[in-house]
Amino acid sequence: MFRKRIAAVLVLPLAAAGCSWFEPEEEDLDFAEYEQQLTETYNESVRLSAELEAAEDRIVKACLEKQGFTVHDPWEFRSEAQAERETFLDAPPYVWFLPTVEDAQRRGFWQWTRLATPQAAEDGDALYAEWEAFQAEIGWESIEFGEEEQEHVEFFSLPDEEQFAWYVAYGGQAWAEWLHADLIGGDQADGSPGGEDEGVVIPVGGCRLEMIAAVYGELEEGEDEYSVRPGQPDGDWTRMKERYAEETEDAEVAFLDCLVDRGQDGWEFYEGEILVHSYLVEAGEGEYAHYEYPDAGVRWPDPPADVPDADDVDGWIEFERDLATDFAECGDESGYREAAAHGWEQAQLRYYLDIEGAVYAWQDEMRDLIAKAQDAIGA
User: Fold this and answer.
1) Whole-angstrom Cα distance, residue 343 to residue 353?
2) Number of CB atoms found within 10 A of residue 86's CB
3) Backbone phi and psi for residue 47, each to the nearest 5 degrees, phi listed first
4) pTM (global) more than 0.85
5) pLDDT in tens, the chain (379 residues)
6) Which of 199, 194, 167 is nearest to 180 (CA)?
7) What are phi and psi of 311, to 5 degrees?
8) Is residue 252 a contact partner of residue 260, using CB atoms and an 8 Å limit?
9) How far apart are CA 236 and CA 241, in angstroms?
10) DSSP 3-state assignment of 273?
């Protein structure tokens, strides 16, 4: 009894000071309980974004066509909406360095697709088709024109003055002169990072401004065309990454030990990733890494001296396959793959559940804007 009273006295000042030493660990959530609900919410957000974007484009095109512009620049109407998913989960950090054993033995880490002639490899066309499917799966698919836009590539065959007139009607005189001055003998704006025009906001006009006024109302001072659409809510991504790191800390050690046992020592984790693509580029495979952290430092071993020749695509694929197979098998044997998958599910569950209410409110706001856009289209 006396010992218990002393313990209580010792703990009280710590609790009063807000000390987190005695905070209980977060219990695992039931992934299956929430997956369908969160996936439906995610996909509804995707659909609403695409619907509003399509309605905006219809208003702008109708405005242009009233003025006699029937051939359009397809780049101004390309969709930037994300694709729907089978699961709400974002691509995990290990997607780039931890293929399955089967995938590792077939296609390595995909870095060989950065070589000058990747499709020259044996079965290169089939493997490259897999690479494109992989990009789509993780949300890296390239933006392509649909059939309607393909029919209007003729826009770029129009005389320069006709193209410029279209841009004036689309975005206003100042906007057209800023982005397309080359069509009338002027200098192209330099909006590149570090360029003299970086961060310059040119007032939009023309049909873009007409659409904005119809859907969002008049622009206020300081507002630009990109700030009127309500942004989708974001959660605490930093805390999400911390949760993931907490779940995988011990498994990372076991994974690296397994690599050492296979003669693959010198690797280190960086923010839940192994920078294998940077290693492969240093070894000579391609001009740049598919995925890298420039500020991470060197967290990989020195490449061997006997790497394939620069133009030996098949040799590089085999080089990758051997390394990827070691990674994949160690992921299984060390328990890292299981721990990483579980940790990502738990971290992502809490991230998306924390913002679910805000997302529902944002969806309601988007529906109101879609209704306004449809009214404008009907008018």
Assistant:
1) 15
2) 9
3) -65, -40
4) no
5) 333 333 333 333 334 444 444 455 788 999 999 999 999 999 999 999 999 999 999 999 999 999 999 999 999 998 877 889 999 999 999 999 999 999 999 999 999 999 888 888 888 889 989 998 888 888 776 555 445 545 547 899 999 999 999 999 999 999 999 999 999 987 765 544 444 555 567 889 999 999 999 999 998 877 778 889 999 999 999 999 999 999 999 999 999 999 999 999 999 999 999 999 999 999 999 888 888 888 899 999 999 999 999 889 999 999 999 999 999 999 999 999 999 999 999 999 999 999 999 999 999 999 999 999 999 998 7
6) 167
7) -100, 10
8) no
9) 9
10) strand
Alpha-carbon span 255 to 172, nearest angstrom: 58
Contact 287, 310 (CB under 8 A): no
By C-alpha distance, which of 269, 301, 263 is closest to 283?
301
CA distance 73 to 61: 11
The first and second tokens of residue 317, run together, are 């694929």
